[in-house]
Design goal:
Helix content: 10-25%
Largest sheet: 6 strands, mixed
Oligomer: single chain
Number of helices: 3
Structural class: alpha+beta
Radius of gyration: 17 Å
Strand order of the largest sheet: 1-4-5-6-7-10
Order of helices and strands: HEEEEEHEEHEEE
Amino acid sequence: MGSLSAAVDVRCQWEVDRSPFEKAVFGKNQMTARTDGCLRANNGEVFAIAEVKPNARNRAKRPELLWQETGEMITWFMHDISVERNRLQPRRLLVSQDNHAIYLTLASVNGPYIEYLQTGLVPTEPLRAEDSRPIPPFLKMQQYGPWKIL
């Protein structure tokens, strides 16, 4: 990964950082994300996280991996809220390597989901689509790949 960011004029670098975010607090509960690395800017901001596994990905037989990655993304969103980091888009990038395959996962949230994470309560006034349908609090994990690297 480091060679990708070294080849172009970027102001970030890949780091092996197992815990780039502080604990996410949910009422009396808390969660810590343990990543395999992150793409960090010179100012300390994280732009992507990395997860590496030795085996091929199998959603049906190994949902724990998806749960782990979702937890890492939730912790990242909560971290950005706690440090009042404003992003233009409510999206985060996860780069995963499973054996000989690379996946890119974009996580996105809507306002009601952030409110739910902060309070533990579903908002009383839901977000509404253009046709007035209520939009539930939601986290979406959109995965792209695999791309074979060998």
